[in-house]
């Protein structure tokens, strides 16, 4: 058991992101009376329990194996996944915002402050260390996605300028990192197999950006459509690449499939709530079933690989 704890991966918090994204999506469907109420609190409690369990286990790893946690925090790839902890907090605060707002507000403040700290630490790490182009992968987008999440509840909790501040940072770094990603993907060697699922992270910034922008401006305008349709474009592009994903061996990184699908589904539901256009209703239902099926498959594979002890092992 102690050996498993020693190699407990910080990347496991991407599972919380996926499950919390699904819970928010179920909440959206419930509020539109498309799903029964009972599924909403169940999904919230499952996501919350996962987060608390993983936080406890990683906390124990920090106590018993501080050197391993330090190695994670100074690893060129794993450092980006520490932001998944603060993102999980922010997503849980969004989840509770219409369910238990008195709990959502302190969770948002903790998530916002923690994510701000982790974002600055991560960017400083990028600047202070020598990176080659092959070190870049879509996991670098994770801190950026978290920044764009902050305004979703922040517009009601904190002064408006704070939401504009974080949205501006997220949008700025999304553009820069996307240029780097495109250059790396086209003109350099292919990503290792375990990082191929992180391609789905490309969907998240424009999808989350759409929801965040709508919350800040309360305006369904050309720029909001630009963000939404960029998200759809990446979704269609990845659908065309489906053969590349079907043949992959299982890694914890498979959970990178889940949150971006939830994010673009939530964005589609939000678009329907504003426009009441049948197009967005149909897209919402299609993406809902795709998201649920994907999370079901990834969760099952996670359980199977836990049973054969392929998770919580030493990584390269």
Automatic annotation (TrEMBL):
InterPro entries: SLAC1/Mae1/Ssu1/TehA, Tellurite_res_ion_channel, Voltage-dep_anion_channel_sf. CDD domains: TDT_SLAC1_like. GO terms for molecular function: monoatomic cation efflux transmembrane transporter activity. It is a multi-pass membrane protein. It is found in: Membrane. Its main location: membrane. Gene3D superfamilies: Voltage-dependent anion channel (1.50.10.150). Keywords: Membrane, Transmembrane, Transmembrane helix. GO terms for cellular component: plasma membrane. It holds the Pfam family SLAC1. This is Tellurite resistance protein. The lineage of its organism: Bacteria, Pseudomonadati, Bacteroidota, Bacteroidia, Bacteroidales.
């Amino acid at each position: 058991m102690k050996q498993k704890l020693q190699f407990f991966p910080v990347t496991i918090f991407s599972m919380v992101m996926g499950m919390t994204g699904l819970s928010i999506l179920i909440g959206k469907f419930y509020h539109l009376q498309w799903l029964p109420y009972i599924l909403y609190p169940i999904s919230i409690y499952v996501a919350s329990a996962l987060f608390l369990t993983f936080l406890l286990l990683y906390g124990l790893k920090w106590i018993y194996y501080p050197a391993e946690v330090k190695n994670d925090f100074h690893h060129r790839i794993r450092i980006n996944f520490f932001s998944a902890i603060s993102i999980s907090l922010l997503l849980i605060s969004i989840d509770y915002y219409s369910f238990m707002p008195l709990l959502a507000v302190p969770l948002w403040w903790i998530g916002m402050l923690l994510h701000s700290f982790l974002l600055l630490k991560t960017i400083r790490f990028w600047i202070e260390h020598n990176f080659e182009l092959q070190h870049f992968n879509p996991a670098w987008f994770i801190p950026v996605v978290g920044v764009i999440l902050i305004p979703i509840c922040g517009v009601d909790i904190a002064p408006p300028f704070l939401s504009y501040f974080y949205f501006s940072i997220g949008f700025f770094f999304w553009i820069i990192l996307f240029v780097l990603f495109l250059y790396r993907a086209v003109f350099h060697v292919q990503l290792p197999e375990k990082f191929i699922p992180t391609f789905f992270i490309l969907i998240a910034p424009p999808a989350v950006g759409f929801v965040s922008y709508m919350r800040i401006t309360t305006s369904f305008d050309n720029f909001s459509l630009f963000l939404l349709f960029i998200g759809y474009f990446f979704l269609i592009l990845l659908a065309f690449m489906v053969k590349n994903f079907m043949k992959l061996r299982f890694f914890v990184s498979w959970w990178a499939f889940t949150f971006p699908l939830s994010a673009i589904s939530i964005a589609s539901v939000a678009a329907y709530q504003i426009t009441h256009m049948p197009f967005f209703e149909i897209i919402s239902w299609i993406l809902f079933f795709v998201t649920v099926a994907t999370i079901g498959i990834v969760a099952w594979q996670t359980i199977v690989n836990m049973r054969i002890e392929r998770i919580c092992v030493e990584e390269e």
